[in-house]
Amino acid sequence: MTEQVRMRVVNGLLSGEYMPGDRLPAERDFARLSGCSRITVRRAFARLETAGIITRSPAHGTRISSCFSGNTAPIESVGILATLRETFAVEFIDTLTRLMNERGILAVLAAQEPQSALQAGSAVRLFSKGVCNLIVWGLDRRLDFSLFEKLRVLGVNLVFFDRVEPGPFADFVGLDNRNAVEQLFCYTLARKKPRRILFANRAGLAVDALDQRRDRCRELCRQHGIDFAEALLPRRISPEQAREAVRNLDGETALFCANDEIALPLKTAAPELDCCSIDGTGEAAASGIVSIRQPMAAMAAAALDALERQRKLGARWKARKTLFNGTLIEPDSSTGKVLCP
What pTM was estimated for this model as a whole? Predict the structure, then answer.
């Protein structure tokens, strides 16, 4: 019965019945609602307080915690929430799992279709199976961030990687997108100043990383007197759509793409165009695309280190954002260089 009462509070938080900071009924009232004795409720509340899920004081009563104390047990398993439908995500998962194997950590992969609505539910399922350390490759800002925040209250250590920045309830590890675009600009201007830059972006997504790349590209165009335009394209770009997107571009136009997945079909449709992108995949380099490679090993290590920091600091933890500079990879080049550091 004690465990049932404890889980009633946990499930009430996850379902939205309670929110961080909400006051719970008094022990006597909770016992009546739960059909159990007051001593059972007192034991359940004691367990919840020890876990940092609730706080109790004579002045404020019993409340759902609004602090993120995290899970302090040694990290034995990490849940990875990501899709296997994008090359970059697969490369990160591969790098991360190899590093986890080296550290003796079990990787639990929750692979999903590219639908942000599914990710929070997958996180809850991992938590229900005892996985209390999560790394999330967020698809876009339509994620249920409130549910992830509740998982932090319940003691889950949480790191977001690459695409969306979660705010004060989780750490973030990603590319310094402003620096990445600046490197591509330095490379482009060193060869020939274009009259116009077309920024090819994904349609229908609200992704911090892509917005940062577009916004910095627009700023640099304004500073250098270059015309800026944006083309919004679907995730799966057909050859016809790619040809239409570049149909009116000429030698005075440079093509900047939000990532390699967008750049590849456009470069195929117009191989004569100068094309820059971000991700640094081998396929992009082989296709003649200048791209920024993200330091996968360093970023994977930073994600695991962030989980470890949450574990050690407990309630003293504050969210941290860790950004990395990428390396510019020229076409058919196996080595890269950093421009505009």
Answer: 0.89
